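Running low. Invent one:
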Amino acid sequence: MHAGTDLGKQVLQAGDGWASSGTGTTGGSAATTEHVVRDAEELRAALAAPAPRIIKVRGVIDLRADCSTYAADGYTLAGYLAAYDPAVWGRDTEVSGPLEDARAASARRQAAAIALNVGSDTTLVGDGRGAGITGANVRVHGVQNVIIRNLTFRDTRDCFPQWDPTDGSEGNWNSDYDAVSLQRATNVWVDHNTFTDQPHPDSESPTYFGRPYQQHDGSLDMTSGTDLVTASYNLFEDHGKTMLIGSSNTSTTDPGKLRVSIHHNVFRNVEERLPRVRFGQVHVYNNLYEPGPSFVYAWGVGVKSALYVENNYVKLSGGGAVEDLIYNWGGTAITEVGTVVDGRPTDVLDAFNAANPTAQLAGDAGWTPTLNKGLEKAVRVKDLKAGAMQRERYHVAKGTDFDTVQTAIDAAPPGTTITIGKGVYREVIRVPRTKPDLLLKGSTGTARDVVIDYDNANGTKKPDGTTYGTTGSATATIEADGFTARDLTFSNSFDRAAHPEITSTQAVAVKATGDRQYYDRVRFIGHQDTLYADTRAAGTRARQYYRGGEIVGDVDFIFGRATAVFDQMTIRALDRGSDPNGYITAASTRRDNPHGFLIMNSTIVSDAPAGTYYLGRPWHPGGDPDAIASVVIRDTKLPAAVKTAPWTDMSGFSWRDARFAEHRNSGPGATAGADRPQLTSEHASQHTRRAYLGDWNPA
């Protein structure tokens, strides 16, 4: 696939898998006009137009909405959890009653909102790079001759998973909605698409009743008598139950159908069903498998299945063992030939049978594929590239690629530059750790022109009645390594005076947890807890560099356990009209980390009265004795607002046990005294940008 090629007119070539048999698969190529669609309304209208139809998706169409908009009959997750807690309901009976009825009604509302029904003789393609559909359930049901290509399908998320305490020994959460669902469909070609659960993968979901809260079903499922399908050059990543072929063990519609070819796909950081097959003759060849740490199995051999697995390449460095590649779901045989695992030809079936003496499989599935165009040796697909064409640059502003910053982040592959137009963007954003090396930059070169703002506080109530907490209050949560922001403002505009009913007023503008994060000419605006410079977990480290920007706040407004350098920054300490007026830092550096916060070559400014501000206090989250704050302020101008004894205790922990120091500061607030530890020149040499950032040079 090449940019500039008219995908709408292309048809499946002869011999390219099962979808080339019968009448072949031509989609809507015979159409004399095409529909170019940019939003859900236009897409639905195009899908309803007379066939044959060519539909080109331009940009990303996002069907998602806040889950609360679908809730019906008083459904809340908190209420559902309380009603069906195994301690109350037990584990022997399926759930029923008003809350389950409300959940089902809510699910029906979501299903109606996210369904996209594709008719016969349709080609649905992405128009150039970066096209996709987010949050949708694309249904190819009861139709024939369909082509789907060059689209990124993201986050088809079930807002209302059902708890089934009888599913397995411990119960399970079950979700609906496949990204693409094939039922009673014939002659379908699914090619060069990307399927991902990002930005909300189930791996990051909470656990309820001791079981993962699963919100995603299949990526590409083929059931209910579907037949003659080719899935080629797709990328499946960050997903659990990926590809199911066959409805149930007792299906009366699947026998004799479910003839599917799966070739030249990449399965990356996925768990299972790659694919799982019942009944069908399924040829799985020349795919690249890169399973992640939660890998379960690849090839599921189900009832009366005839899996022919040929010349696939597997990389197991991320997780799993050779014998785990096969799972017996009640089948009798699988043909497995030509597999290469980590560079070595491997008899996977032999390894499976040796490890599973009570679930043996024979080595002949009873047929030999002939529609195998492009079949090659496994080593040729070691570095296979697959998936939809992606862009390297995106633009955010009304009338451009994206209207919101988050939709651009969701669409962007790692390493993308996202340019944000002038304006105020009222939204909460998250850059997940699976999006490394993103660059977010303002279009004008002036941070004040481009503002990302929201106003949640710790005590602000969510729709379900719970509160956000400090972490959840963040306007921006930046988890990815290698992230850069430039010429932007991140703001939390929570107004204490307007909300006297909220007493927990921590309101974070940015929570940063990734390593090698660079904030260049960026402003952070807030009051309490403005900038949360942290790490992913207590035992991890993260280096962050803040240069040439501004941080505004009053209480603990630079806090966390990151190794963070603040260079040439303006730090503005607000006047609350009290004494103390506030605390600039509240570090929680781990005991074994010699480098916490380094403020250097900067200017601290304040309109607060003289002697009313502390430089910092030691934060011990949850009373953690191993959080020993480390803050060094050097070569920085201090205002008169800074107290002559500028460090103070916090929550019963003495500042004297922390690692606080100054060096060569200036200004009216830089006085000398017994309670102002100073670094010697020798010690100062250990507190430089290079010492803190190590082998990373953000410049």
Summary: Residues 7-232 form a domain with the Pectate Lyase C-like fold (CATH 2.160.20.10). The first strand starts at residue 34 and ends at 37. The chain is about 10% helix and 30% strand.
